[in-house]
Structures
1.
Amino acid sequence: MVKKEIVSAANLKKEIEEAKAELTSQNKKLKLSVKTEAKKKVNKKKVVTKKKVDKKKAVTKKKVDKKKVDKKKALAKKKADKKKAVAKKKAEAKKKVDKKKAAAKEKVDKKKAEAKKKAEAKKKEEEAKKKEEEAKKKEEEAKITQEEIWEEQLTEEEIIGFQIDKTDMDKLVNRVTEMIAGYETKGILQNILWRKLKLSSRDGSRLALKLERLGNITREKILENGRWTYLLLIKKIPISTKSIENAPCLVCPVEGKCATDGEISPKTCVYIEDWVLTELKTKKRHETD
């Protein structure tokens, strides 16, 4: 009995110890489980918090990125609007310039059209006038001049041998030839020359025919103020000794002593001086006449 009790006590003690050990183990497990659970909770909380933070960061980043994008878009839009405004301004300025150019061109075209119209009208008028003049010229050309009648009626001997009463014909021929030569290539109308020489139309015309036959002049038939006349042009100037006829040297009493470097010299000769002055006065008088 006592033995059984001892065994029972030992078993009990053992069971108690086992129970304690089990309890300790359970406590350990429980503590571990609690710690694990707590750790899990902490980790979960951290994860949740991290997620929230990441989400918040993502939202913030998204907002920031959106702001940046919006800012870039705004700047780009501003630039585009500015560019459009400049382009619009340029287009308006170009439009104004084009409008001015068009207006100026229209004016120029209008002026050109008017000028063209005037030119055409003037051309038509000139053509009509030219036709009228040509018709008149043809009509006049059909007319025979008095000079042509005389030329047909006179023989060559009569033309070349033409004389005017009480007139030195050689001097007259030389004088008239010199006068015509003075007009060089322009020539002079015969009616003007006859008035200067105070000759009649008949004598003047016959003298012109004589000069032409002598080869001194040429006659060119022209229409002047609606009437036919002749333009007299120099052809050949005859040799004349008139310019030295009265030269004192020809009859000088001291001609033998005259020398350029002598006591008697042409440089200091009073005879030559008087002769030159007289010739100049005579020439001026003829020119005035």
2.
Amino acid sequence: MLDKVPVARILGFLFLATLVLLGWVSYQGYGTSAGRIDAGVHIRLALLAIVVALFTHTMTLFYFVGTGSRIRKVVQDYRLERSLVERTRRFKADLFPWLTYTPLVTMAAFIVGGAAHTRVWPPWIHGVLAVVALAMNLVCAVVAVRSIGENVALIDEIDALLPDDAGEARSGDAAGPTGPPGSR
């Protein structure tokens, strides 16, 4: 019913890609400030890295909102323990602050990079923000991968509690898990 979706694996890969790209961009930034790497190369890679990072954080947020909603519906429809839904709230409480503030700091590092390149702001501010953003992305990735693993285990646990024919009744069927649509 709540089949494991390959989205969990895709998100893990995206977090790895985010960390590799941001690490590479950070390394390039120090090379750029030392005059060994062209600023244009650093800026183009930074643009790619910020897009991948923001996509990863946004998709992870939507993954947890979507699976949490589906878990809540299945628990309600099949009258399972409400503690299963509470577990999803704990995942979100651990992860969502990281998914909120990490992209903000990462975007700030990117934007301030433009200000540092044009000499509006001192480059050290961009450097500090870049290191903080990289560290926050690392922590966010660890918390996200752990939470995704716990979420997949919870989905497996719920699947084991469902009757064998649970996946056969669809919400549009005349008689779903709790009877006809008007009886809910």
3.
Amino acid sequence: MQLGVFDLAIRGSYIRLKTKETLMDYSKQEFERLFKENYPHMYRMAFSMLENNDDAKDAVHQVFAQVWKGKPQIANDSIRGYLLAATRNQCLHLLRSRQLQRQMEDELQRDAAASESEEREELLQQLQQVIDSNLTEQDRRVLSLHYDDEMTYEETATVLGISASAVNKHITRSLAKIRSTLKIAK
């Protein structure tokens, strides 16, 4: 067997290369024809993978932009396969980017929630310390019954054997002490 100009021998087997005439010609008209013929197939594939109209359009347009910019040497009979494979790869890239973005957002939310929880716990500890060190036993009991046990002023007054107006005075005075102590501490 005699090798022709466009034949190539590799490790004992022969591969016929395509001639220049059978490779894609990237004139503007040819590119437009290529776009019109292949866009619907590429879009359907992209939409089925991405499930979003705008993302599917963007993926297909990105593939065509890469083809126009890179001008790969593709045989006419394999151009659709090449474009569909490129579209699939572009969609997979977008899906990986989305997944990475979601993971980062989830991690940021977990960090924010943990930080918020720690801040709240610290604030509650400060509040408890202020209550224990600055309020009388009676003030602490009034606050505990009203806020922790969710009793009304009248119910708190009955339990402690004092008037409802006295409960109001204890709560008002206690809250003022707490506020002033916390303002000084900051």
